[in-house]
Amino acid sequence: ETCNLTALDGDSVIYIDRVETHEPLRLHVQPGTHVPLHCTASGKLFLAHMPAEQRSVVLKHLELTPQTDRSITDVALLETELERTRARGVGFDCEEFVRGMVAVAVPIRNAEGHCLAALACHAPTARKSINDLVGYIPHLQAAAAQLARSLALEPFSV
Q: Is the pTM above the cut of 0.85?
């Protein structure tokens, strides 16, 4: 299935890189594309890992525009979902961003444990259920740890 490397960019998620599935049924999103925080697996993961004060400020200004009939558009319900996301350490999108697509996301953490980026996997529900993607979480977590080590070893130059 398709895997995505994403990061927080202001009040949205930016796709940094992707590895596309070879299946003909897929969601094609170019690197550089921005998607909402409140209804994507990566976005909810980023919100969940923000300090409480920062998250509160972001949620006050965030437009919870429904992308599908499953999008969470109530701040109190979203806060509850974010607490669950923080507790389990995995973000879920159950057809909230695009009807017929599900996704899971895991954090890529720095040495201090802060969420720098996310590694996500998404698939159409015609092929995979959210429960199927849950089975990929250990693989995503291992890859996220490997990416974190690589990022720590390679200094960025401008």
A: yes
